[in-house]
Amino acid sequence: MDPLDLGARLAQLLATGRRVATYKLATLDALIQHCLENPVPDDAGLTVPIGDLADRVVEAYWPQVRVFGEHGVLRQIQHTRPDAVSLLDVVRALRGEAEQRGLSTAAQLRAAAPREWSKALRRVSTTLARQPLFRLQKTGGREPGVAFLYDDSWLSDDVTITTLDAHDWSIELLPGVPSALARVSSMLQPVVRQWWVEDVQRLNRDELELPDLHAFLFGAGRTAVDRLAPGLREYQANRCYYCHRTLIREVHVDHVLPWSRVPLDGVRNLVLTDPRCNGDKLATLPAVDHVRDLLARPEADLQTIAAPLRWPVETARVRGAAAGLYRAATVGSPLWREPGLYDFFDGHVAW
Question: How far is CA 160 from CA 27, 30, 62, 164, in A?
Fold first, then answer.
């Protein structure tokens, strides 16, 4: 499957389709992330657990259910049926549970309260199956649509638990789709998130400032990850991860694999940096050896940093994302090495 053709088809579908909530966009974004973290051969299909998509959707909405200044909690759905589960209500309840436990992130709560998390995730998974996954390949008109991502013939507005059980609560991406989604991710994700911002603005019928709104919806949770700075400073011997200079006063906790591509807050993906390095790197993929060194850090050392804060390490997810991001990268793409200096990707990785 040609990645550009798939990307164009998705963009046209979303641009012309009817959206009364941000659920479709959140689900597509989660699907792209899953394909990045689980790379397969170009002609292969992929089984995607709906629970994995639900997990990522919860993480996406986690920062978005906060109060946005004087506007309060922003609406992300036009209306709900009396018997329908609002995804944002579920996420708000999970955040409340986390706050009661003194936790900041979705990943912390997932580890600390697996029973509560699993129960909420089942509700979210059911909603995804009945709403965005059933409608993602349709324009919103009377025409049935053509399944070009996955077989949705068994999904419906009222798909039963029995039917979901029969399909192992999973969708099957068609051959070629997983690789194509990963390869167009760098172009498609910004478009999806821009539509998301515009939909939130429209659904709230308010004069929301788009730049501020985008940062609120999709900015990394700096306050939360900054709590890891003391442990990372000691582990890195008070030196910047990238330039190895001694850190002075202001320091940044950086996501080595860019947050805008794969929002992974696990300690495996976090390093302490000089502000100049972090400000210059931004969302660029880093040089291959930066990632090689990131993945080589001993698990026990990272657990020592993470454990006091009940923070996840997420080694498996970070390894998968690293493989997927560089597999999808184009030969010749600039890879950030240090301020003002880039490598050019040769198509090979060293991990």
Answer: 20, 23, 27, 6
- Please give the backbone phi and psi of residue 243, each rounded to the nearest 5 degrees, phi first: -100, -10
DSSP tag of 346: -
Which residues, 6 or more positions from 329, have their beta carbon under 8 angstroms from its beta carbon? Answer: 285, 345
For residue 219, what pLDDT is reported? 77
Distance separating alpha carbons of residues 6 and 137, to the nearest angstrom: 12
Condensed to tens digits (0 to 9), the pLDDT of residues 159-169 reads 999 999 999 99
Helix axes 114-130, 23-37, angle to 10 degrees: 110
Alpha-carbon distances of 95 from 67, 158, 303, rounded to whole Å: 12, 28, 24
Residues 139, 24: Cα–Cα separation, whole Å: 11
Cβ-count burial of 194 within 10 angstroms (0-12 exposed, 13-18 middle, 19+ buried)? middle
CA dihedral 241, 243, 247, 252 (to 10 degrees): -60
What per-residue confidence (pLDDT) applies to 286?
Answer: 97
Q: What is the pLDDT of residue 332?
A: 94
Three-state DSSP class for residue 342: strand
The predicted-structure confidence for 39-49, as pLDDT tens digits, reads as follows 999 999 999 99
* Contact assessment for residue 150 and residue 175, using Cβ atoms and an 8 Å cutoff: no
133: number of CA atoms within 13 Å, CB side?
31
Backbone angles phi, psi at 321, to 5 degrees: -65, -40
Residues lower than pLDDT 50 in the chain: 142
